[in-house]
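Researcher: I'm preparing a figure for a lab meeting and need a structural model of a single chain. I don't have an experimental structure, so a prediction will have to do for now. The sequence is pasted below. Please return the structure as tokens so I can convert it later.
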Amino acid sequence: MNKSLFEETRRFILGRMREQLAAGNHKMQTEKKLASEVLASYATVRLVMKELEQEGFIRRIQGSGTYLQPEAGRLLEEASWPRLRLFSSPLFGEPDLNYADWLIQEIKEEARRMQRRVEHVQVRTHDEFLERLSSAAEPGDAVVYLPPTEPFSMRQLGELGRHDKLPLIVIDCELGNINVGNITTDNRRGGMLAARALIENGCRELAVLLCEPMLRQISQRVQGFLEIAEMSGIKPVIIDCEVHVEDSRQEKTRTKLRDFLKSEPLPDGLFAVSDCGAFAAMEVLRESGIEAGSDLSLIGFDGLAAGRQNHPVLTTIAQPVTEICRKVFQNLREWRSGAHPQHLLSPVLRPGETLNRACRKLA
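Model: Understood. Here is the structure written out token by token.
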């Protein structure tokens, strides 16, 4: 299927729908009639109409015809909004439990407020993203990319940098000096905040639960944590769960932490480099008769809603999701060719109940 012909046919039919609504007529012409007017094949028109039906524009009634749905007016208005092409790794559909799902949900809501039409595409690799970006970018498009959890190769960074004339923003992944708009969390500062909170709480036997693939943002969280611990004369234990991109993070975390608790002394302060890892840790600790917030202090990283619903409520380093979304659309609104804004946003400590209330070991 020729994509440009498909898009041209779609635009024509959307225009016909606007005319029908303006005339107060909710019954559409037949597909054969539309095909003759747009000079496209009947097969192309059928595919377009099927897509529009799935999107809620029309309803087919066998033996009667095709009718505009009550929501068609609103959908047509939104169809005229500038397009935001949003690329992300495959999602789990659980914004309360997964950072990427949460961030994508917030971006879509902010896009609607900013009157941007979102086309969300899920990709598994950077190469898949770059291929789609090269083949489908159109004038007026803006692009936001929340990458899969894999490092960029030098080749991929080079290809990404060649799109410097496109309103393109990569989020949650620092790119160095590549000429692309970039918004990310200051992960090193987040690790520092976690270490300070545990040490100020009286913890002296610290451990880092490495429960995510060791990408740049994760290594920076660990680096910041170790820097503050070293300044306090503390050498934390690293519990490496050996998580790879394709692994189940929680399962690997549970297995490794169970093994650790069988052979090593219990730390009094534990930093999990993600909330998902912290949730898995709380399960394992509870199995062993250990309660976060009473027997040891635990801090996660992300600020997921599930942490607030947890018992005890998880203390976490919360990512600045609201500010990320605001910066995305501010940069798109102010974008000009050759400008590549870089934003490093600070996370914050969100207090919960998993800091050791008894302060078992004070300085």
